[in-house]
Amino acid sequence: MKFLASAAVCLLLVAALLTTPGLSSPTASAVANGQNPKVQCPPSDVAGGPTGCYLVPPGIHKIKHVIIVMQENRSFDSYFGTYPGADGLPRKNGVPTVCVPDPSTKKCVAPFHDVYDVNGGGPHDSSDAIADVNKGKMNGFINSVYKAANTCVQAADPACNHNLKSNATKPDVMGYHTAAEIPNYWTYAKDFTLDDHMFEPVKSWSLPDHEYLVSGWAAKCKNKNPSSCKNAIDSYSLLQFDHAVDQELTQGTTSIDLAWTDLTYLLFKHNVTWGYYIQTGQQPDCADDHQETCKLGPQNYRTYGIWNPLPLFTDVQADNQEKNIQPLDNFLAQAHTGTLPSVSWVTPAQVDSEHPPASVHQGQAYVTSIINAVMKSPDWKSSAIFLAWDDWGGFYDHVKPPKIDQNGYGLRVPAITISPYAKQGSIDHSTLSSDAYLKFIEDDFLGGARLNPKTDGRPDPRPDVRENAKQLGNLANDFNFKQAPRPPVLLPTNPPSDSPDLPPWFVGAIPCKGCTVPPTPRLTGDSPTAP
Fold it and tell me: Domains in the chain and their CATH numbers?
């Protein structure tokens, strides 16, 4: 009897402990935040990271505005391969110790300093990602270029003839830029935090990259029911998307339903404001990303293309949130008046995208104008700008992508964290992808709620909760929330460059320090648009 009584007391004590807040039992709050019920996190923590749980730093809530500026088609090594302290190109005494075989010359081509502003790059769909990585050997880049050369539409394009003038024998996928060509990007890295292990979320091209950017998944769906979606990283062509959007905007019906759950669903549920801003111009990529060049189609904030996926997400339609998809001019106006939403995505047109054969200098000018606009804004002291490039664009990178699931990661891309609270001159070596942007937003504004089918109230069959991956680093580590907000670092939209082929409207033009309007091509000799 004494044994039974003791057992009963023990059971009562255990029950009391399990219902006590802060102890080891998973709480309703923890489950609601997207935690794995098998992982016992205290209520103060959220899911994710190497231990399965982590504490969100309270200082993160000093960030009231998250701005994601997404550019196009550059590998980390092609922009920061020689940046001091970064995991850049393997070198000895300044000379690269790696090379990639050229099947046409039977020689091995080492990375080289490419001073030219216009580059060709290479093909960059899922098959090219696999070929370039080549089972971790990272030596398929030049071969991919030659295999894709017959898809080029414009014979004079540098992507087609590999003609780099003085570097004519070296396909420019092996070229890299330095501060001599991209001084502003190197300045942002020096003054804020460079992420040198940012990988594209999926081993594929821009369409699934942008779907992952807003939703943490890419799929193909039979209808508007989230359960009808199946994993697919190469799901639709650009032409299919354009037709579907035209139907949606003109008839209120569409032939394509992106029915899985995206981040805006959680933002809407939690009354968090957001905006997706599209620059008027041409789409920055080809309908078939295996092509290197093509005739480009029109783009604006009412056009889907591959850069504006949100109009076809059924939760955006159901929540009547299409109005949040806006022209870039609205972003600039909101920055000026200090009325930016909590979350912003900023997407370029082709001329400003850095997607080959677009001018690197022009793209840098566009990005600088966006960052200047935020830095001049009343919202600067509470902002975090995440600048990144969506995929590698066929350019060489020496780091083998880590495996996260059947979809990724893809190749390494440049990324910089810019904020008055960002650590100065820091390099974050942790493994990251655009999933880390979702994670940061969820931790800052949503109490750690995740795009988790078990907890978000809108279940879809995604293979995993990317934000909770053990390998995924935490962008909060790029910040020092205890420091006083740092002043803006306003830069010129037309900085010095050693490139001999700059667009003519930049040659001889004023530096335009602090300009907040994206420069536009006008007459030869004209300066970039003044602020």
Answer: 59-77+181-478 (3.40.720), 79-176 (no CATH), 492-496+503-531 (no CATH)
